[in-house]
Amino acid sequence: MYEPLLEVNHLKKYFPVTKGLLNRTVGQVKAVDDISIRIQPGETFGLVGESGSGKSTVGRTILRLTDKTAGQIKFKGVDIHTLAPVEMRKLRPQMQLIFQDPYSSLNPRVRVGDAIGEALLDHGLCTRSEVRGLVLEALEACGLSTYHIDRFPHEFSGGQRQRIGIARALILNPGLIIADEPVSALDVSIQAQIINLFSKLQQSKGLTYLFISHDLSVVEHLCSRIGVMYLGSMMETASRDELFKHPLHPYTKALLSAVPVPIPKLKRERIVLRGDIPSPANPPSGCKFHTRCPFAEEICRAEIPLFRDAGSEHFVACHLV
Ligand code: SF4
User: Fold this and answer.
1) Which of 159, 225, 265, 276 is deepest in the core (most CB within 10 A)?
2) Number of the ligand 1 atom closest to the C-alpha atom of 294
3) Among 253, 274, 319, residue to substitute to test ligand 1 (most atoms within 8 Å of Cβ)
4) What is the 3-state secondary structure (H, E, C) of 135-199?
């Protein structure tokens, strides 16, 4: 087993809730509450959960776009939250983020070639004369054409814009790419093309991904391991095959029951969850899922379930497993 490329230990990210003229802190939103993740080089780890489960905050905290409240994040063995700003800036090209909506991060007045190449120059990774050649390589690797280099963002479709977002990240030759809902805004047919592109780039360039999605069917084809988050906590982690064949946590089972399957007789019975995800400012006692769990018992309301090893590298937080 190699050293992990990324190691997240007991990460917490709480946002203060303030009130009044003096901005007194009256509570905390526990967006991420004791999350641990290890990602090996060349692996794709899928982080799944409903909107509001804290998955994007995990991604942003790993990239140090926001400070952590507690815990440790190690990239290539280095605790990144202890780095001075100048050291962190040197590390940035190695950890890249791909957004759900790449259009919002593209300046409409800047040609796509310049937008893709600007980070190379900012970080001093090549000379001006080398940029164009590297941008053309990145465009080609992402399935775009050479003539796209001089076009403006509004001239592209949603799928092409996501390819531009991937090219922007790829050109920096990163060790880790965090893709935050990268296909959620796309049509299903385009989603498949972009997922195939992620897969192809991983094989050709040995990339490591943290792939964040609310949809298990999206991560199924790309991820080797999957973590399921609910209300800031990890409910279950397992290899993709293990999670899809033997889901243990009731929340995972509910998410899986909504995944479309090509063969009707393999379809799982649909589990419809009651109500909405509770507020992370006031999470339920005991198991955070107990207000929506069809199997909740008295102990679920009183005690927080431990995140336990259920065998075969399969971990789950549920009293009944
Ligand atoms: Fe449901 Fe109880 Fe398990 Fe939580 S601990 S998932 S409430 S059965």
Assistant:
1) 225
2) 1
3) 319
4) HHHHHHHCCCCHHHHHCCHHHCCHHHHHHHHHHHHHCCCCCEEEEECCCCCCCHHHHHHHHHHHH
Q: What is the pLDDT of residues 147-160, one digit of tens each?
A: 999 999 999 998 99
From CA 195, how far away is CA 287, in angstroms rounded?
Answer: 34
Which residues lie with the beta carbon below 6 Å from any ligand 1 atom? 249-250, 287, 289-290, 293, 295-296, 300, 305, 318-320
Q: What is the amino acid identity at position 21?
A: L
Residues of the chain with pLDDT under 50: none
Model pLDDT, residue 40: 95
d(CA 191, CA 182): 9
Q: Taking the domains of the chain in order of start, what are their residue ranges?
A: 246-320
Residue 263 token pair: 């063969």
Tokens of 214: 């609310």
